[in-house]
Amino acid sequence: MGTAEDLFDGQPSGLPAPMPRGTALYRPGPGPAVVRHVSGYAPFVDFCAGRGVRADELAADPERLIWFLRTFGSQIDGDSTLRAAAAVFAGNTIAGLRPDTEWTTYEGAPPTVGNREKRFEVGRLLDGLRTADDAAVHGLVATLLDWVREEPEEFPPLQPRPATPAAGQPRYVRPALPAAAYYSREGEPIPCGRQWGADGPDPDSYSVDSHPERFAGLHTIARALIDHLTAVYDVDVQDDPAHVGELLGQGGKVLQAVKVTPRASGTAALTLVLTGYPGVQVHAGVLHDFPFPVCGCDACDETVETTADRLERLVLSVAAGGYSERYPVGSRRWSEYALTAFDGSGSETGRGEPGPFTAARLHDAEVRLREVTGGWRPWPLRRS
User: Fold this and answer.
1) Total of domains in the chain
2) Both 271 and 133 in a single domain?
3) What is the rounded CA–CA span in Å between residue 372 and residue 365?
């Protein structure tokens, strides 16, 4: 008989179904079941026993678990099955620390565990512990324990409602994207978007970016969106490299920066930055950036089609009034956004520490957002 997986509350199950990024982050309906106890950690339990340590004691003591993972990190990393089991065990331990914590997976991204305020990517956590010094480990333990002790803060949800298109309003049509095939070093065709099965990505595929050129079509999409916004809405369009300063972070070569500002109060401007990666970064409203792709590594396995879906949804939904921002939120003074798709296909939200803005910019954002507490308004249509 194999090792029983009964160290955490409830029956163990598989990871929750990935939330799709190709059509909507959250679909209408009850949503996926809450998962707090994931199966697949038996090899790690056996590994602990082989070193004279009881796994149930580690599960009840996250600080001791973190030091154990740090001590044996090299041995764990040398066995892919053991590494995956250790990540599941660590995630289950974190999930048991607070009642509002659960496992989450997104299409094309590694699983995380946490609550709305903080999420941990357990695979990356294991990688970091392997090389961390004592001060860094103590810092991680302190962060984890502080998070456990936090009292949850509840706020009314942001619920932006995009406007229904006016009669005769031109619809956006995606331009044709060139078809292309990509191959591995061995000459085998790569099924982009379908590389990984139920076991998830190959651990060696993280941080490997084999074919970023597959995202070149995003520049075509971005320019088509700018043309559409210009044709349909009453806006001011400025094509100026200086607008790259709207972004939180400026990584890589900038090819073009276009700011589209609607000529009406209470509306959110959009800045689209085309990068040499190739990719597109969008600054929406006052405090939030959205990268396309989110991650181009082989493990995440994003495609230009699914990334274009998300880019189009963001831009068209902001113009339709389906976008809200809030700052500051709670005692931590976080920033928050919510996006409701213009076509009703779904919605998404995000909350966290605001980026490295200056104090003056944060103050300006706070003042401006007081005026749009119900969400950013729909853009004014261009008069024919």
Assistant:
1) 2
2) no
3) 11
Residue-number span of the structural domain to which 341 is assigned: 203-370
Task: Give Cα 99 distance to the centre of its chain.
Answer: 23
Tokens of 318: 């902001």
Q: Is 72 within a domain? A: yes
CB 239 within 8 A of CB 254: no
Tokens matching residue 29: 């309906």
**Which residues, 6+ apart, have CB-to-CB distance to 351 below 8 Å?**
116, 117, 329, 334, 335, 336, 337
Q: How confident is the model at residue 25 (pLDDT cuts 50, 70, 90)?
A: very low
List pLDDT tens digits, range 82-129: 999 999 999 999 999 998 899 988 766 788 999 877 889 998 899 999
| 100: number of Cβ within 10 Å | 10
Q: In what order do the strands lie in the sheet with 102-104?
A: 102-104, 112-114, 119-120
* Dihedral over Cα of 205, 209, 214, 218: its sign: positive
Please name every residue paired with 273 in a beta bridge, in sequence order, or none if there are none: 257, 281
